[in-house]
UniProtKB/TrEMBL annotation:
SUPFAM superfamilies: ATPase domain of HSP90 chaperone/DNA topoisomerase II/histidine kinase. It holds the Pfam family HisKA_3. Residues 352-367 have a biased composition (Low complexity). It comes from Promicromonospora kroppenstedtii. This is Sensor histidine kinase. The keyword Transferase applies. It comes from the Bacteria.
């Protein structure tokens, strides 16, 4: 099965936890089935001690080697030659010894489990073809051995190996496929968030180009004309330079207006943009905003709340693994309270930050929030944030 793009360990995120769960599920299945099935035979005093010891060691080696190979597969790493030889050799011994002793019930378990682990490193089509080959080969070995040794229950010698291949193979390939799809969806979610941020930057760059491009081009042409006229027609040169001055002033005013509109957009627009960007990044957003309350706030507090929404949204896209977020604006003691909550906080304990009433800072978790906290404090507001388990909550309050 193709390995696809490697996924880095993200230090405790949901994706890493899912990978560990898949590994434990697969490795645990191999260990439990082999341990319980072969264990009874290994502990049977009627079986010669030498055969029991050899089978027990081979089964344990098969479990360890399969676990190591599964770990490499879950990290999209190629199988090492040492573990391949160990898994293959141990599985052969763990199968041949019980088969030679006439136990047609357990001999195929270790080979079937090992084959199911090894085919995970093959492309999808070759993996299923290999399982199909094992589904034919192992029952054929059981059939030939049963006929050669005079085993009366030939059917049992055939269907038991087939059952083991069917039990191990599709289940393991399915779990690995689920892991691959999850990893690719997570990559797509992150990429969507990055594209949404890039789209906003391009929009601003295009607006800036539209304003500056025309003015600068005309300024360059008129400056060049003024330089040519400076000696022969000073009056016309001066007129051209006055037009250049006017054009430069117009460009400056329009640029300031653009920047102010970008930085001081309305709270409603910021919430709508945050909802759109987060949704594009795969985050389910719930916006509960009192529109009349937002419209009644003074310009300065309303603009600062818009910046809080923007900063919190940026933090979610860049630093979290959120799947859900909520943006709530409610009345609060004659003013308003904005709460932005998401479930994507990084693990590592509770963290919080805010500003005190006198403007001094407490613990911080990012310079962007700290700067906004200081600006809100200057207009009589307050900004705080707290991270607890997987939740990160930003709360801003302003006076009306």
């Amino acid at each position: 099965m193709s390995t696809g793009p490697a996924v880095a360990d993200d230090g405790g995120s949901g994706l890493a936890s899912f990978r560990r769960n898949v590994w434990w599920g697969l490795a645990g299945t191999v260990a439990c089935v082999l341990g319980f099935a072969v264990g009874d035979w290994v502990l049977d005093p009627d079986v010669p001690a030498g055969l029991r010891a050899l089978t027990g060691v081979a089964t344990a080696a098969t479990i360890v080697a399969c676990g190591a190979l599964l770990g490499r597969r879950m990290r999209d790493q190629a199988p090492s030659a040492g573990w391949l030889v160990t898994a293959g050799g141990a599985a052969v011994v763990a199968g041949v010894v019980p088969l030679a002793a006439g136990n047609f019930g357990i001999w195929s378990i270790a080979p079937a489990a090992t084959v199911s682990v090894l085919v995970m490193f093959l492309p999808v089509r070759r993996a299923w073809q290999s399982l199909g080959a094992a589904l034919v080969a192992l029952p054929l070995v059981g059939l030939v051995t049963a006929l050669a040794t005079g085993e009366p229950n030939v059917a049992h010698a055939v269907w038991m190996p087939a059952l083991m291949v069917v039990a191990f193979g599709p289940a393991m390939l399915g779990m690995v496929r689920a892991w691959q799809v999850t990893a690719r969806l997570d990559d797509a979610r992150r990429l969507a968030g990055q594209l949404a941020v890039a789209d906003e930057r391009l929009r601003f760059a295009a607006d800036l180009h539209d304003i500056q491009g025309h003015h600068l081009q005309v300024i360059a042409l008129k400056s060049e004309l003024a330089a040519r006229l400076a000696e022969v027609e000073p009056a016309r040169a001066a007129e051209q330079m006055r037009e250049v001055q006017q054009l430069a002033g117009d460009a400056l005013r329009e640029t300031r207006a653009l920047v102010q509109g970008y930085r001081r957009t309305t709270l409603d627009a910021e919430i709508a943009n945050a909802s759109r960007v987060l949704a594009a990044a795969g985050v389910a957003v719930r916006a509960d905003v009192d529109a009349d309350l937002a419209a009644s706030l003074p310009q300065a507090p309303r603009s600062l709340l818009g910046l809080v929404v923007r900063e919190a949204t940026t933090n979610v896209l860049r630093h979290s693994r959120a799947t859900r977020a909520a943006i709530v604006l409610l009345p609060d003691d004659g003013g308003a309270r904005l709460v932005i909550d998401n479930d994507g906080a990084r693990p590592g304990g509770s963290r919080s930050g805010s500003t005190n009433g006198d403007g001094s800072r407490t613990s911080s978790d990012g310079t962007g929030l700290v700067s906004l906290a200081e600006r809100l404090d200057a207009v009589g507001g307050r900004l705080s944030w707290v991270s607890d388990d997987d939740r990160f909550v930003v709360t801003a309050t302003v006076t009306g």
